[in-house]
User: Fold Propionate 3-nitronate monooxygenase from Catenulispora subtropica.
Amino acid sequence: MSGTRVVDSELPIVAAPMAGGPSTVALATAVHAAGGFPFLAAGYKSAEALADEVQQARGIGGAFGVNLFVPGSMPVDEEAFRAYAAELEPEAARLGVELDPRPVTNDDDEWAAKVAFLTAEPVPVVSLTFGLPAARDISALRRAGSRVLATVTTAAEARAAVEAGVDGLVVQAPAAGGHSGTFDPHRAIRTVDPADLVREVRAAVALPIVAGGGVTDTRTVGELLQAGAEAVAVGTLLLRTDESGASQTHKDALADPAFTQTVITHAFTGRPARGLRNGFIDRHEATAPFGYPAIHHLTRPMRQAAARRGDAERLHLWAGTGFRAAGAVVGPAGEVVRELARGL
Assistant:
């Protein structure tokens, strides 16, 4: 790719940032070595831990990006929160953990400290998820030398990102695994073909696009590039690779025929995310309140315990609609990247 593009890599394949463990420096190194563009995931990490990862990633010998969670006001109804905490107590007891009935509402994921670090020690690309921050933060990152990408899920969000002054867009289709980048967590997320969504955004704005969601093979990569993307982001397909930091429970579930579909749920974190449908979702989706990060913090000790115990029925198993292809992945991430770009 030429230097005029928002991501500089030999192949038009981007390793999507996957917070909570899957995105590792080893994964970034492998993706870069295969010709792709890697991202580190800053979400849920301290600014100090991010700095350490960035320092390690500078040794891969090429460009990489860092993804930030944009803090926002998403209050949780305290009465609904207490009722949900009580509802989850039997689940927690089975896992040997206790739940904190007090909602955590003041967690901004160390936004200011992370922005301060990235402006002092800039990386080639910074992507933003969960909305748009203050324009001054975008400007500061750009002045430091980073290209700034905003994750958007609709053409309207893309137009808002243009007004905020970003350099490019990550267009995330509903088929993508993990949290939706929607600016409005309460809106119904309609089904839309990933290539059609890219065309909608391309018709609305002129910024460069990295497209993601539902990527399973070279054909789907080609469709997104043909629709107007300059590169294609892949996440779920990398979860079972050797370099992924996903829990073994998560990796095994992706290949388990007992899991037959993905659904969008807010039961685990209070924000919509796509994952394998399991018992926890079936039992609690209807009663779970919205409210991020309060619900995320409530269920986090349960999810951590479930991962340790191999309890896939109580774990957030983030996965896109193409998870069947991920279940067949065995081996290094570089092979996935090269196979996706074969024949392009």
Q: What stands out?
A: The two ends are 13 Å apart (CA to CA). The chain has two domains: 1-72+108-239+329-344, 76-105+260-316. The chain is about 40% helix and 15% strand. The first strand starts at residue 13 and ends at 15.
